[in-house]
Design goal:
Structural class: mainly alpha
Largest sheet: 2 strands, antiparallel
CATH superfamily of one domain: Leucine-rich Repeat Variant
Helix content: 55-70%
Organism: Ploceus nigricollis
Strand content: under 5%
Number of helices: 41
CATH architecture of one domain: Alpha Horseshoe
Protein name: ARMC4 protein
CATH class of one domain: Mainly Alpha
Shape: elongated
InterPro entries: ARM-like, ARM-type_fold, Armadillo
Strand order of the largest sheet: 1-2
Distance between the termini: 92 Å
Radius of gyration: 33 Å
C-alpha cells in the first residue's frame, strides 16, 4: 500500500501510458513479535557486511544469498538493519568481488517497491550507471538488470537519464550486437548475449518516460532496436519489442519502425510460441497502426491472419487486449476489413462482447465499429447476435468504451433491420441520454450515432418527440466549445429537422440564432454539416428570414470558395433555401454568390447542380422584378 505524491514541474515528460509506480510508498509496518528466524539471521550477517575486511564481507554476502531473498521478510531485514546502504556503498569500491556480491543481492531485493525507492534515495542508481562502463561483463550485466528493476518509477528513470545511463545502455547493446553478429547468424555467445539481454531490460524500463524515449533516439537506439529485432533469442526479443511498443506512442518512432522495416519482424513474431513476445508484438502494432502506411504494411506482410488466430487465446487477457487493439487499429483501413471478413474475424469479435475486462471490450467494440462501416459486416454482426450486447454497453461508464460503443451502434444503425433491433432495445434513448455526458468525445460520438438512427427508424419523428426534453438538449449543445460536438450536433439537427413538428420545436428552442452564430467558422467539416442544418431548418415558418436577420447569409457565401466539394454541395442547398427570401438574395448578390454558383451549375453532382441553378434563378427573378418595378 502506498500513497501518491505530487509530481514536480521537472517531471513533466516523465509520464507514461503504462501504469507507473507511485512516487512515495508508505513504509511497511512489521510487528517485532512476528519477525522470522530469517530476519534475525540477516541481522546477524549485517554486522559482518558492515564492519569486516573484504574477505569477510564477501563471505557474509555469499551467506546472505543463501536466504530466500524473494521473501519480503528478508528484503525488509536488509533494509531495516541499515545493510542496504552498505550494499550500495560497496558498489563504489574497487573490489570486484564485493561489487558483484552486492549487486547479486540488490538485483533480487529490488523486486520490492520499498527497496527500489530506497536504492534511489541512497544514490544507488548513479553508481550502477557508472558500473555500465566496467570491463567486467558479469558486473555490467548485474548493474543493468538491477537498473531495470529500480527504474520502474519516474524519479528513478529521470536519474538514469540525467547521469548518462541511456547512452551507456545503448552503447552496451550496440557493442554486444557487433560481438554476437546476430544479423549474420553466427554462433550463440551466451555471455555476450546475456549482457545484451540485461541492457535491453534496462532500456525497456527507462523507455516508459517520454524524455527517455527522446534520449534513446538521440543515442542511436532506433537502428539498434531494428537490428536486434532480427535475432532469434526470445529472452532478448521480449525486452527489445517491449521497448519498441513503449516508444511507438511517439510519431518519430512509428516513422522509424516503418522505414527501418521492423513491421515484418513484428508480424513474424506474432507466430512465436511465447505469449509474452506475441503480446508485445501485438501491442507495438496496436500503437503503430494509427498510421495508414503501417496498416498497409501489416497487411502486406500477412500479419492480419495471425492476429485473427490469436483471438482464440481468450484466456490470456493481456495478450487478448493487445491483439484486439491491433485488429481495431488495422481495421481503420477498408482493405484490412475485407481481409478480416475473409478470416471470419468479425464473428470471433462478437463472441468477445461479454465477460471481458474493459480494456479488451474497448478494443473489441472499436474493431467492430470500424468493421461495420462495411454493409456486409452489419448483417454479420446481427446474424451473430451482436446487436444486443453492443446496445447493452451503452450503459457503461468508461468514457473510452462509450465513444467506441456509440460508433458501433451508429454503424449498425445504417441498416434498417439492425435499427429496428436497436430501437426495440431502447438503444436510441440510451444514445440520447449520452448527450448529457460531460465528456465532449462521448457527446460527439453519441450525436454522430443518432444520425443514422433518426434516418433509418420507422416513424423517426415520433420516436424523437418521445424523448422528453430531448430536442432542447440537442439544440443547447450548439453552445458547446468543442468543434467535433458542434459538427456532430449540426449533422443530427439536419436529420431531425426533416420532420416538421420536430423542426417547429427546435425553432422554439432557438435553433436559428445558435446555428447563425457558428457561421463564421473556417472548419470545413463544421461548415458542411452547419450548411446542411441551415438548409433543413429553412423549411419552417419564418426561419429563412430569421437566418438573414441573424447574419448567417454572408458567411455562407464565403463557403463557396472552400476547396471541399461536399462543402459546396451543402452550401448550395442552404443558399437555395435562403434565396426564397428577397432580402437574402440581395445579401448573396452583394457577396458575389452568382459568379461562384455559375461555375457549379456545370458540376457532375446533380444535387449541387440543381441547387446552384435554383439559387441563381431566385436571385435573377428578384432582380427582374426589381427592375420591372423600377422602370415599369
Amino acid at each position: 500500500i502506498f500513497s501518491k505524491a505530487s509530481s514536480s514541474l521537472e517531471d513533466v515528460g516523465e509520464s507514461s501510458s503504462e501504469t507507473d509506480e507511485d512516487e512515495q510508498p508508505v513504509r511497511h509496518q512489521e510487528g517485532s513479535t512476528d519477525l522470522s528466524a530469517e530476519y534475525w539471521g540477516i541481522q546477524k550477517l549485517a554486522k559482518y557486511v558492515k564492519g569486516g575486511d573484504p574477505t569477510a564481507t564477501v563471505i557474509a554476502l555469499c551467506s546472505m544469498r543463501d536466504f530466500n531473498l524473494s521473501e519480503e521478510t528478508c528484503q525488509l531485514a536488509i533494509k531495516d538493519t541499515g545493510c542496504l546502504e552498505v550494499l550500495i556503498n560497496l558498489l563504489d569500491t574497487e573490489e570486484i568481488k564485493c561489487q558483484t556480491g552486492s549487486l547479486k543481492i540488490l538485483k533480487e531485493i529490488s523486486q520490492n517497491i520499498l527497496i527500489r525507492h530506497a536504492i534511489a534515495d541512497f544514490g544507488g542508481l548513479e553508481i550502477m550507471v557508472k558500473i555500465l562502463d566496467s570491463p567486467d561483463t558479469n558486473l555490467k550485466c548485474l548493474a543493468a538488470e538491477t537498473i531495470a528493476n529500480v527504474a520502474r518509477f519516474k524519479r528513478a528513470r529521470k536519474t538514469v537519464r540525467q547521469h548518462g545511463g541511456i547512452k551507456r545502455v545503448v552503447f552496451t547493446i550496440i557493442r554486444k550486437q557487433h560481438d554476437i553478429k546476430v544479423s549474420l547468424g553466427s554462433s550463440y555467445q551466451a555471455k555476450e548475449s546475456e549482457t545484451a539481454r540485461c541492457a535491453a531490460l534496462a532500456l525497456w524500463s527507462c523507455s516508459k518516460s517520454t524524455k527517455n524515449k527522446k534520449a534513446i533516439r538521440k543515442a542511436g537506439g532506433i537502428p539498434l532496436l531494428a537490428r536486434w529485432l532480427k535475432c532469434s533469442h526470445t529472452n532478448i526479443l521480449i525486452p527489445i519489442v517491449g521497448t519498441l511498443q513503449e516508444c511507438a506512442s511517439e510519431p518519430s518512432y512509428r516513422l522509424a519502425i516503418r522505414t527501418e522495416g521492423m513491421i515484418e519482424n513484428l508480424v513474424k513474431n506474432l507466430s512465436s510460441e511465447h505469449e509474452e513476445l506475441q503480446m508485445h508484438c501485438a501491442s507495438a502494432i496496436f500503437k503503430c497502426a494509427e498510421d495508414e502506411e503501417i496498416r498497409d504494411l501489416v497487411r502486406k506482410h500477412e500479419g492480419l491472419q495471425p492476429l485473427s488466430v490469436l483471438l482464440d487465446n481468450s484466456e490470456n487477457k493481456q495478450l487478448l487486449a493487445a491483439v484486439t487493439g491491433a485488429i481495431w487499429k488495422c481495421a481503420i483501413s477498408r482493405e484490412n476489413v475485407l481481409k478480416f471478413q475473409e478470416y471470419k474475424t468479425i464473428e470471433t469479435l462478437v463472441t468477445l462482447l461479454t465477460d471481458q475486462p474493459e480494456e479488451v471490450l474497448i478494443n473489441v467494440i472499436g474493431a467492430l465499429g470500424e468493421c461495420c462501416q462495411e454493409e456486409e459486416n452489419r448483417g454479420t454482426i446481427r446474424r451473430c447476435g451482436g446487436i444486443a450486447p453492443i446496445v447493452k454497453l451503452l450503459s457503461a461508464t468508461n468514457q473510452a468504451l462509450l465513444v467506441n460503443v456509440n460508433k458501433a451502434v451508429g454503424g449498425c444503425a445504417m441498416e434498417p433491420e439492425n435499427m429496428s433491433i436497436i430501437d426495440s432495445l431502447d438503444g436510441v434513448r440510451l444514445l440520447w441520454s449520452l448527450l448529457k455526458n460531460p465528456n465532449p468525445d462521448v457527446q460527439a460520438s453519441a450525436a454522430w450515432a443518432l444520425c443514422p438512427c433518426v434516418e433509418n427508424a420507422k416513424n423517426s419523428g415520433e420516436m424523437v418527440r418521445s424523448f422528453v426534453g430531448g430536442l432542447e438538449l440537442i439544440v443547447n449543445l450548439l453552445k458547446s466549445k468543442d468543434k467535433e460536438v458542434l459538427t456532430s450536433v449540426c449533422a443530427a439537427i439536419a436529420n431531425i429537422a426533416k420532420d416538421q413538428e420536430n423542426l417547429a420545436v427546435m425553432t422554439d428552442h432557438g435553433v436559428v440564432p445558435l446555428l447563425s452564430k457558428l457561421a463564421n467558422t473556417n472548419n470545413n467539416k463544421l461548415r458542411r454539416h452547419l450548411a446542411e442544418a441551415i438548409a433543413h431548418c429553412c423549411m419552417w415558418g419564418n426561419n429563412r428570414v430569421a437566418f438573414g436577420e441573424t447574419k448567417a447569409v454572408a458567411p455562407l457565401a464565403r463557403y463557396l470558395k472552400a476547396k471541399d466539394p461536399l462543402v459546396h454541395r451543402a452550401t448550395a442547398l442552404a443558399l437555395y433555401q435562403l434565396s426564397e427570401d428577397p432580402n437574402n438574395c440581395v445579401i448573396m448578390h452583394e457577396n458575389g454568390v452568382v459568379k461562384l454558383l455559375l461555375a457549379m451549375v456545370g458540376s457532375t453532382d446533380d444535387t449541387l447542380q440543381e441547387a446552384a441553378a435554383g439559387c441563381i434563378a431566385n436571385i435573377r427573378r428578384l432582380a427582374l422584378a426589381t427592375e420591372k418595378a423600377k422602370y415599369g
